[in-house]
Predict the structure.
Amino acid sequence: MRDEFKAFMERELRKEDLLLSEKQIEQFFNYYQMIIEKNKVMNLTTITDMEDVIIKHFIDSLTLIRAEGNLKDQICSIIDVGTGAGFPGIPLKIAFPNLKITLLDSLNKRVKFLNEVIEELNLDFITAVHGRAEDFGRDSDYREKFDYCVSRAVANLSTLSEYCMPFVKIGGYFIPYKSGKLEEELTNGRGAVKRLGGQIENIVTFTLPNSDERSLVKIKKVNHISGKYPRKAGLPSKEPLK
């Protein structure tokens, strides 16, 4: 299994022009094993086939480089909102150890799992925190403190922007990972993005093997956000900004 994993992972990494060390590939393999084992007692992901995990979780997480270039030499801070089983934050940390990563999730047992992964893989400068984006986005320790905010959470662009834009510094970027056709979502979300201090700079669209169309929306933070955002828990999803 280890050799099969390594060969497939390296092949898919080459498609992204990424070359990782033996240690990094081993970290990905151990991460995969931990996900599969924990998934027996806790719903982390419906995707469990080895090749699907590699492509749809690990490689997909690393496609951030398609929007932001090579992250290898950057020392920057990233918060991953609604990280779930650790995507995209943990794959990014394994591939680019220089990044400073914060993983935010609202389910404490997922955060406990993430801390187990961090300890097992011996990862530095990465923390997992338990809480809601609506609350942490108002916390002075987190508000406008990050160079990047990323999220693969399933929510429309308006809602996700209200969750995520408060974390981004002026000049930084919010980059959501989106699947499927984006036209209607972009049309409905542009007003919210602007209201939340953002400006859509670029959209990178691509496909991965056996996957739907994927897009990375690169949103630059150009203005400070009004203190009334994010609104209280539940409102961003029930009443998306327009």
